[in-house]
Amino acid sequence: MLHFVLLAMIQLFSFAACFACSDEAADESRKVSSAEWHRTRERVLKRAGHRCERCCKPDRAIVLTYTERGPSPRMCWKLAGSFWDALGGMEQWYDQTGAKLPPEQWPDKSLARKIWVMLKVVPLGPSEGGDENLIALCDWCRRHLAQLRDPHSQKDTPHCPPAERGMSV
Known about the structure:
This protein is an alpha+beta fold. The protein contains 5 helices and 6 strands; from the N terminus they run αββαββββααα.
């Protein structure tokens, strides 16, 4: 009986050792792909001017955002934070395509919520295709990507005008 218990323990330990080896190999693979992904992500963000390619929100900025709910949701945003609030002249709201909104369409600031923008790099289709298949989007645009697509085109095109992508934050 003791023989069977020892044999079972040896098999269990050898299985655990094999499993640990495969985990180490997977961790090493993740490190390589993670480093490669960071380089790819930085290239895509640089191409996008570190702005959402849909609504032009700047990466790692604090913005006020307001969303109208409904079958066709509409979002607008403006830069926020103590620096922008101190500059009274920077009061400008933008819509979900990055276009400036006229003052009569600005939402009530008390209804807006303050968020931290962290751009995500997402594929537009199948993973093949390199950087051309990747787009930098904020969370709102990423969640609404299917609704924002041009129904007449299979390829998604950025809405943020290049001139707006270059504006400094």
